[in-house]
Amino acid sequence: MLVFILIFFIIMSAFFYKRHVNSYEYHRIFLQDVDGLIVGSPVRMMGIQIGYVKKVKIIGDEVYVKFVITDKSVKVPQGTTATVEFSGMAGSKSLELYPPTGKVDKQNTPELIVESPKRLHDSMALVNVMYTKITDIIDKSAHFGKQLLSAEKDIKNNKEKYLQKEDVDEFVETSNRHIEKIKEVFNKIKRSKK
């Protein structure tokens, strides 16, 4: 009789445990590269841990990742972006989820949008590009400043010549062209960031 009661409690415990686990939200994605993501790695949404990676398996030329959302207060919205990122100083990885920022077309948007892993060397390359652009802007600004100083000295040395309206208009037009060139440089930087 004691054996039957023990078996009954084991079966009931397994049933309630399975029911509890089945109430979690599961997601499956395919990545080209997981960059060190392993079973048990945290799943984060906007920096807060909401689950963990349950399974990682190579299938063909992609990596299948199954993850569980254990925080029942979180519902992953359609159109969420998933990517692998650093989650600690020791180089541990996490699966990061970013909810959509704009309106989502429910019919044409996938449940999860997968992005390539974000690597440290990619960030360093971006910093290098930004440094190059800023140096270029500083050089062009310095060159423009030198041209303005040169024009000012020229005006002081040749006051009578520049008292004529045509010459003043030409100076203003030249200055406006230089300002437009600087604006073009800033616009190129803005476009390259996008």
Task: Characterize the structure shown.
The chain has a 7-stranded mixed sheet, with no helix packed on it. It has helices at 2-22, 120-157, 159-162, 165-193, and strands spanning 25-31, 42-45, 48-59, 62-69, 80-86, 93-98, 112-114. The protein has 2 domains: 24-117, no CATH class; 122-193. The protein has 194 residues and is an alpha/beta fold.
SSE layout and pairing:
Elements (H helix, E strand, L loop, with lengths): L1 H21 L2 E7 L10 E4 L2 E12 L2 E8 L10 E7 L6 E6 L13 E3 L5 H38 L1 H4 L2 H29 L1
Parallel strand pairs: 2-6, 5-7
Antiparallel strand pairs: 1-4, 2-3, 3-4, 5-6
What are the key terms here?
194 residues, alpha/beta, seven-stranded mixed beta sheet
